[in-house]
Amino acid sequence: MRETLADWQPAIDEAIATLIPRDIDADYLESFFGSPTYAYDPDGIQHALATPLWDLLDRGGKRWRAILFLVFVEGFGEDPTEYLPYACIPEILHNGTIIVDDVEDGATIRRGEPALHRIYGRDVALNAGNAMYFLPLKILTRNPADLPADRRLAAYEMLMHELNRTHLGQGMDICWHNERQVRIGIDEYLEMCACKTGCLGRIVARLAAIITDQPSEVERAVAEYAELTAVAFQIGDDILDVEHSLGQAGEFGKEFGNDILEGKKTLLVIHALQKSEPDRARRLQEILESDNNTDDEILEALEILEDAGSIDYARERALELAAEARAAIDGLDFDDETTRKLEEFTEFVIERDV
Amino acid sequence: MRETLADWQPAIDEAIATLIPRDIDADYLESFFGSPTYAYDPDGIQHALATPLWDLLDRGGKRWRAILFLVFVEGFGEDPTEYLPYACIPEILHNGTIIVDDVEDGATIRRGEPALHRIYGRDVALNAGNAMYFLPLKILTRNPADLPADRRLAAYEMLMHELNRTHLGQGMDICWHNERQVRIGIDEYLEMCACKTGCLGRIVARLAAIITDQPSEVERAVAEYAELTAVAFQIGDDILDVEHSLGQAGEFGKEFGNDILEGKKTLLVIHALQKSEPDRARRLQEILESDNNTDDEILEALEILEDAGSIDYARERALELAAEARAAIDGLDFDDETTRKLEEFTEFVIERDV
Fold first, then answer.
1. Which domain holds residue A66?
2. Contact check, Cβ <8 Å, B160/A137
3. Same domain, B62 and B200
4. How high is the ipTM of this complex?
5. What residues in B contact A121, CB-CB < 8 Å?
């Protein structure tokens, strides 16, 4: 196995390029999508699919979903190179959701460059993003590791379950974002994270368990690890935004108070609204609802979060979740090497650019 | 079985309401999507998913994909009521693509009312449309007709194949729409129809064949029937737009020359560019490329199509395709009742409102 996790990146990109090459021709189309009834237009499919997909992938991203998959496969005692094509499943799915989310949010920037729909148009970007929901699922049909039918069916059923819950999570998040009032509590927030971000993590873990034929309690344990880690990661994001903003108070940069400006209902906001005096809670709500905030107003909101102990609360919850995640896989007999890699993985995720 | 095809509509809507009820509560969410890790927000999911989905369905649509599925099931000698939940699969998929297509095209109107993204916002509409790609696929996992594992796997593999090709077709269509020049020929156009519209038809037919365990040659035959019918239907649409426009020349209504105005590369346009004198072909290309056309220019383009014999050509191709479709299932031993229904179906499709 590779020395460090990042060493896997070139092999993963090569596996993705086997599924969807940088340069599309009629032979590839016929071999992957089957014979045309009349005639494909490789140039059109190049522009509609391969070019936007590789534009996004070439901007970076650590391929950590693919890497975590390979760590699990190796932890289960199997050769990860044999299962490399399957590692592309969560990776392409994830990048597809990024394109679609950016259209939904009207995002302008992604990984330091214009969001895909700003370059290729909303129609091309969206269709490419949606194609990336189905493209990787065809890998199971192509069956590169010659899996028996029951594992392929189990994989499809798992994917349908998790991809449905992903859309529930995204639906809740969007809905709350469009509401002015903060109507939900901490459990609903955590559920949204568990669905929206956690389910892709669960796909990584469960896919590794299913295709290597692990017992169902092992599949459950790694799924829980991945879900809890993803939720902790999401909360970490919320904390970073607030801490980064408080750290630069006085010299308000362009990232200053992003979440407050967007009116995001983060764990910190929900906690602060519950714990603050009524007049301060009302004031926080007011600033969140406003479409335009001055830097002073943002600072005021951040201070309400701080005074309510919401940063500390969120940090405790994140640590708790990370501990629960570790506990979930504690009973599994992973070797020291895998355990080390799962720890390395946690650090790897934290230095993130997605 | 019902006397006429339309009699199935209430039962189909009831089956859809079992999958995704008009009113969402925690019990439904738990039973369909599994236990939450923390707590779902039924109100949020109501607004994000059930309300937009039922808004679209309640605007009409003949549920003909579901009905055709049931006709095939009965034609294969099985009881359609037993397989009713599976009829929702192509129907919900189709309505999902409508929502997504409307976002991609920036459509304003759908079935006589504002497109969903104009009512619920692009984010909600898009997420609901995408959720409708996965929601129905979960039916196979829930397995209402107690199908053996091999049929469920075959159904998933078929769906992944066809849904991938759907996105190829949409990708080609979008790409050509964004190009000024007409670069493609008739075979590429027919392939686009076969992928974009035909694959959903193929899903209807193949799903009916797979879940009732038909031999593979029967599955291939009904798939061909459905694909060819869908392509004929698409060409019929192109012809209707031109004939309707020519018919009202002199009193230009609001639908006058829609396809020319949008610069659509229809079968008629591709044919006319190939068959017209060079200067008239150039003129047609010019009018198509222009962002603003006068009524006179549109009429001029329509006359170029007419003079090139493109309307007659398209009509012949459509009739040819319809004949090929009938021939495809000629060898199958459907009873007279099914044959009558498949004929009724063709008429039913023609009086369409989608």
1. 1-146
2. yes
3. no
4. 0.94
5. 174, 178
